[in-house]
Amino acid sequence: MATRSAWVDDHRVAISDDPAIAEFFNGWEVYRAVIDHDCMEHREVYALVAQILAERTQPFAVLDLGCGDSAGIAPVLRGLPLAQYVGVDVAEQALGFAADMLAGLDTDLRCRDLGEQLRDDSQQFDVILLSFALHHFDSTAKREVLAQARERLTPGGQVILIDVVRADGETRDEYLARFEPYVATWPIGRDMQGRVLEHVRRNDWPEEVTRMAALARSAGFGDVTQFYAGGQDTQAGWVLSR
Ligand SMILES: C[S@@+](CC[C@H](N)C(=O)[O-])C[C@H]1O[C@@H](n2cnc3c(N)ncnc32)[C@H](O)[C@@H]1O
Q1: Best of 25, 70, 162 to mutate for ligand 1, by most ligand atoms within 8 A of CB?
Q2: What separation in Å is there between the alpha carbon of 171 and the centre of ligand 1?
Q3: What CATH number does residue 70 fall under?
Q4: What share of the chain in percent tops pLDDT 70?
């Protein structure tokens, strides 16, 4: 906790420090089921990410912050001129699955906090992917993560930000009240639905959708373009350019 409060001057960044996050994602079977049953629209989201990355014709390096098992991005990267993929996550078990997903690609998987990764200025990236990971941070820390990610971009680089969001004007409690019946429609069984909701109640801090874009602008991004909106107005994606 002490290390993270050093890079963001707001103790609430400790939200992302909760060992329950790594614990939940180390029990990867729940999130695996969420992806397999496409509960969070990974197929649609990553089809759109594929379109964005298809514009890259020169070798490019990717930093994936909170990569999990890389299940969405791994098939997208095959066939593209990938120079290197660096995946960062606090859940070691997920990284083991990521190694299998990315087999044959030039990869470097690091079990470390994404804030710690961003403090490392030894490498710049053409693409930084932040997919369903930033909601574990509070607003101040989200902005700080985005500002630091911007610093790690090569000229012409872009951040692809995908996350759960609240509707504009919606409180977190109101969001949770409508998210719970939504999760009850996911085809993953009652026990897994319960484990998802327990994690969401404890560790998810989705931003209001318009505020998320505003945070990206205030983090210094000159171009913030939304490319996806989905779930039940519970998810969105943006491309952020310097
Ligand atoms: C909902 S999963 C998303 C996985 C993948 N990016 C995707 O789009 O499906 C969130 C991931 O972020 C990781 N994570 C959460 N907080 C983190 C932190 N502070 N540093 C690194 N990884 C983190 C979790 O362990 C988990 O694997």
Answers
A1: 25
A2: 23
A3: 3.40.50.150
A4: 90
Ligand 1 atom showing the smallest separation from residue 94 Cα: 27
Single pTM value for the model: 0.92
Calculate the alpha carbon distances from 183 to 18, 166, 197 in Å.
23, 15, 8
Measure the CA–CA gap between 154 and 158, rounded to whole angstroms: 8
Residue 208 structure tokens: 């209001």
* Tokens matching residue 76: 């997208």
Number of domains in the chain: 1
Atom of ligand 1 nearest to the CA of 64: 6
Q: Is 16 in the pocket of ligand 1 (CB under 6 A)?
A: yes
- Helix ranges, the chain (H): 2-7, 19-26, 29-36, 42-53, 73-77, 92-101, 114-119, 139-151, 172-183, 190-203, 209-218
Residue 63: phi and psi, rounded to 5, are: -110, 120
Domain that holds residue 67: 2-241
Distance 150 CA to ligand 1 centre (A): 19
Low-confidence ranges of the chain (pLDDT < 70): 1-18, 22-26
